[in-house]
Amino acid sequence: MPAHRPHRRTTTTLLVTLALAVTALTSCSDDDTPTSVASKAASAFASATAEAGRQFDEIKGGIDAKGSVQAGDITTDSDGRASVDVTVENTTDSTKSFAVQIDFKDEDGNLLDASVVTVSDVAANQSGKGTARSTRDLSGDVRAEVERAVRY
Asked: Residues of the signal sequence (predicted)?
């Protein structure tokens, strides 16, 4: 794969990191306090966010494209995971690809999950679609926000 494209292995690593974070958070011991659980959650999501950052760092020559991306309404897949359609607009005169990080947040703005989706080979002056999907079941009032996007 060319050096400017994100690797599928990196996306898989992000998903595994988030899954491990969920496992760690749901296997609390009697010694865990609300503060220690919150600290573990913050650490796990910081790690997942760092992994997403590494994926974006692999993109060479990328241009900020957050303004060219829209997230649709959240739906729940048949397996209970949240998903959101992502639409990217290529306003250039050549074919481009996009990497988009979607953050799934609760009603208070707390990070619940993160997903990176790649929309490849969007034709000049056209739009493309992808789907960002949570790595675990999310409940309550979940919102999807475009955290960052890069066109390359």
From this structure: 1-29
Give 84's strand partners.
74, 132
Residue 54 maps to a domain? no
Q: Any idea of the CA torsion for 152, 116, 108, 27, to the nearest 10 degrees?
A: -150
DSSP 83-99: EEEEEEE--SSS-EEEE
As a whole number, the mean pLDDT across the chain is: 78
Is residue 44 assigned to a domain?
no
Total-model pTM: 0.69
148: tokens are: 């960052």
Asked if the structure places residue 101 within a domain, the reply is: yes
DSSP 20-70: HHHHHHHS--TT--HHHHHHHHHHHHHHHHHHHHHHHHT-SS-EE-GGGEE
Sheet holding 81-89, edge to edge: 69-76, 81-89, 127-137
Listed range (52-56, 67-71, 144-148) with the worst mean pLDDT: 52-56
Can you give the CATH number for the domain in which 67 is found? 2.60.40.3230
Q: How confident is the model at residue 63 (pLDDT cuts 50, 70, 90)?
A: very high
